[in-house]
């Protein structure tokens, strides 16, 4: 029978994800020569070529991709086993490490932790790490966190066998106007009514994409007057009358006295937030309780 070495399979999967032997070695705290040797041994064990030269780099063969398709089921089952063993050894408390983007920490993660603490049973020990999507999923893949929160637009696809995704909420986007804005009290305000205004949003990244997409759906391209990424800076610029901005309701705690927040009932722009765990880990008692608490907290933004 063919010998399947889980450790070597993880190295092969990391090479697929990272692209080069050097990057794989860095991710796994190994030397490049050790990575190459382990993969050579795995190829001998399986009796197939796993890598082929492509210039100065290597690429995975079709046989390697076939092996990994089956290996993902093994990894998922091992996650389930580890989750159940953790539950057996620690009860339902345990530890859950969460990576979340900046506005999700105060709006979702902290209330979820409070919910767990207020329950009848002791809740898991939740460790929080602020991270945007790219870093969060790297940490999740590497096993450095157990759960990641991100915008759906920057999450892996549902077809990615490494992760299980859980939609949490559609976060409404409200428009922030300075108190003296001519439309601050206008009934039935729509995004299109602000087409001639100067806009404030990030120069790149998800918030730039979300703002421009929402405005384009309303029929105009926003004129970017100022570029800022943090909500404190964005709302300070709005308060000073320097422009208008779309603000997620999850960031409402940053609201300022001289800023009017208007709900866009006609346009109803949203950004979607999801939670992700390594496939199979959702069956662990501690992770399951954190997911439940996050889901209950997310309902407050409906």
Automatic annotation (TrEMBL):
Family statement drawn from the similarity comment of this UniProt entry: Belongs to the LysR transcriptional regulatory family.
The keyword Transmembrane appears for this protein: no
Classification via Gene3D superfamilies: Periplasmic binding protein-like II, Winged helix-like DNA-binding domain superfamily/Winged helix DNA-binding domain
Domain (HTH lysR-type): residue spans on this chain: 4-61
This protein's name: LysR substrate-binding domain-containing protein
Cell membrane found in the keyword field: no
Keywords: DNA-binding, Transcription, Transcription regulation
């Amino acid at each position: 029978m063919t010998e399947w070495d889980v450790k070597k399979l993880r190295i092969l999967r990391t090479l697929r994800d990272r692209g080069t032997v050097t990057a794989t070695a860095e991710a796994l705290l190994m030397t490049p020569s050790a990575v190459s040797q382990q993969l050579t041994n795995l190829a001998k064990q399986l009796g197939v070529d796993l890598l082929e030269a492509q210039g100065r780099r290597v690429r995975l063969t079709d046989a390697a991709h076939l092996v990994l398709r089956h290996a993902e089921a093994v990894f998922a089952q091992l996650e389930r086993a580890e989750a159940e063993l953790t539950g057996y050894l620690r009860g339902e408390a345990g530890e859950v490490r969460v990576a979340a983007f900046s506005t999700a920490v105060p709006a979702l993660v902290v209330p979820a932790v409070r919910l767990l603490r207020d329950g009848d049973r002791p809740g898991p020990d939740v460790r929080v790490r602020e991270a945007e999507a790219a870093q969060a999923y790297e940490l999740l893949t590497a096993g450095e966190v157990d759960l990641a929160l991100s915008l759906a637009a920057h999450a892996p696809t549902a077809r990615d066998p490494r992760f299980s995704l859980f939609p949490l909420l559609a976060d409404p986007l409200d428009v922030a106007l300075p108190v003296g804005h001519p439309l601050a009290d206008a009934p039935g305000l729509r995004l299109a009514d602000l087409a001639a205004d100067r806009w404030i949003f990030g120069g790149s990244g998800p918030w730039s994409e979300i703002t421009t997409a929402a405005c384009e759906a309303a029929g105009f391209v926003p004129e970017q007057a100022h570029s800022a990424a943090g909500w404190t800076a964005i709302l300070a610029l709005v308060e000073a009358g320097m422009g208008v901005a779309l603000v997620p309701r999850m960031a409402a705690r940053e609201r300022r006295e001289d800023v009017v927040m208007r709900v866009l009932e006609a346009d109803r722009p949203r950004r979607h937030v999801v939670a992700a765990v390594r496939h199979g880990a959702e069956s662990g008692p501690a992770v399951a309780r954190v997911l439940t608490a996050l889901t209950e907290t997310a309902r407050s933004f409906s």
